[in-house]
Amino acid sequence: HPTESGFTTDVLALYDWAKARSGNSSILFWGHSLGTGIATNVARKLQEERGVQVDAVVLESSYTNIREAAAHIPISKIYRQFPGFEYLVLDSLALANMFFHSDENVKVLACPLLILHAEDDAVLPLHLGRKLFETARSAYKDKTKVKFITFPEKLGLGHDYISFNPELPTLVK
């Protein structure tokens, strides 16, 4: 069964593998959706346990933590009104040790952080990405290292297609 700890361990192993083969090349973490929680977990773990700061973290279609994300995804809207929603859905994530506390992780990071979110994201609402940005910005000593870029609804990028934007390479640089 996939676990938050297992995801984090896997990405740490991948980081070690890439670092051993990359020479002096920059390594950044790019997480999309659920992967944003994994990316912040690993960046924090490297910083706190190894004293290693990754070169940058890019979060695409991010959220604050998995509980808040699950409470706000549109499919949960019809179930939120029923008794037991929090216990059956939200608490079950905690019981499975699935937290993905990006909001807590970004408070201790010091590497450059870029958050990307489409205004028409129908899976993870824009306000979750904005809230994560505000949390990071208030915690970072160097505010210039934290950026938040939104993509207008008219582009139709939604939850999955920010990477298709031809301006993305320039924005990331």
From TrEMBL:
Pfam families, alphabetized: Abhydrolase_1
InterPro entries assigned: AB_hydrolase_1 (IPR000073), AB_hydrolase_fold (IPR029058)
Domain of life of the native organism: Eukaryota
Gene3D superfamilies: alpha/beta hydrolase (3.40.50.1820)
GO annotation, biological process: monoacylglycerol catabolic process; phosphatidylserine catabolic process
GO molecular function terms attached to this record: monoacylglycerol lipase activity; phosphatidylcholine lysophospholipase activity
Domain AB hydrolase-1: 5-73
GO cellular component terms given for this protein: endoplasmic reticulum membrane
Name of this chain's protein: Monoacylglycerol lipase ABHD12
Organism for this UniProt entry: Eudyptula minor (Little blue penguin)
Lineage: Eukaryota, Metazoa, Chordata, Craniata, Vertebrata
